[in-house]
């Protein structure tokens, strides 16, 4: 089993408001995007009825408005079944530039939630006034013809399962459980399960653009959302307006390479966190950094041998414990919360770690699950990435992961098992995305990003012909809305004034 490929940004907003610190940045003067009106975008043949939809917005809480839009289930057969996508809008000022679509990542994270809950604190006021900010749940996610796999009771039970895939018997049990899960997803979701891939979701964004009345797409994508944005630019380069891709996935990497990159990224961030912890007054670990890491490994080994139990009676096996441990590593402002959780866990109280694991899974305090993040994550990735579930190959991969990331690697291994019995074969494959002819695109990478390592943003910026790379020197996953004024100024000047940041800008 493995942790989620990338976490929704709104989780970090829920944990607490994040202060924007003033930061320094250096670069040469940047050009501006030509403000001349764009030519009318072409409507793909056969899709006229989808592109000409009129959106019926209705109030849905506070300043928000909501609507739905229809898209083809299979773009190769637009006359066939359709899927319904949910959108919401946070209206801008009296005079806006247009619409700004936002995706928080995942895959499986809800764009409706980030616009409803996080945008007011993450986005600058001028940006909020300058655009109608649009959230959407991509196909298969949340309120958009969702992937359906398990009931809340079944999901609770699955999280309490523990396998040891390093043994033949443990791996066989994991494969059996994964096959049963794949069957549940296929039976409860139906035909749409085979069409929740990223390329189809990117095509949906062009239908949204047209229905919103925009000649070009303005878009901010975080983490997995960068994959959506980059695929959109590849498919519709002439329809690209202003795109910010923050915390990029590298489209040339396969599933195993992504997992290894994340394992190393989290390992590096764990070392940074542990050093910071040792320098604090309340760290539960002692000695040198290596000695403290050994103590952390001992804690993990203890939970692996004997799962902990929360105050509500739920069992917390090692995978759920690790998922809870990982979440605060996505933002260094939450490191003190991780320290408190680990200190309590060492004392026998796992509730803080279970809280983070529940946050990761979308479990509410009443036992329900908000959204369908876990199901959508698996469904989308199984379509996007071909995997090799050959046992010797997986065992070799597990060995490499453990060697490269001794703290976290073994818990990210054997991910291919999750897709081995998936009813629908993968349709995606790794490859460069160049978006030839697209308007200038802004890519942001964070040097200490554990989930989408900085090298991935560097790679995507090199692939996209019109991209400029902006680097935030700091810790945590993604940058805009949680980093510093330099990043905020670069993003907002780009969206509001068309000022393209110089390639190589460092904040």
Automatic annotation (TrEMBL):
Q: Bias category Polar residues: which stretches?
A: 142-155
Locate the Peptidase S33 tripeptidyl aminopeptidase-like C-terminal domain: which residues? 406-507
Domain of life the protein comes from: Bacteria
- N-terminal signal peptide: 1-29
Enzyme class, broadest EC rank: hydrolase
Keyword terms of this UniProt record: Aminopeptidase, Hydrolase, Protease, Signal
Molecular functions (GO terms): aminopeptidase activity
The EC designation for this entry is 3.4.14.-
InterPro entries given in the database record: AB_hydrolase_fold, Pept_S33_TAP-like_C, Serine_prot/Carboxylest_S33
Record-linked SUPFAM superfamilies: alpha/beta-Hydrolases
Q: Is this entry keyworded Chaperone?
A: no
Record region (Disordered)? 142-166
Tell me the protein family, please: Belongs to the peptidase S33 family.
The name under which this protein is listed is Tripeptidyl aminopeptidase
- From what organism does this protein derive? Paeniglutamicibacter gangotriensis Lz1y
Name of the gene this protein is made from: tap_2
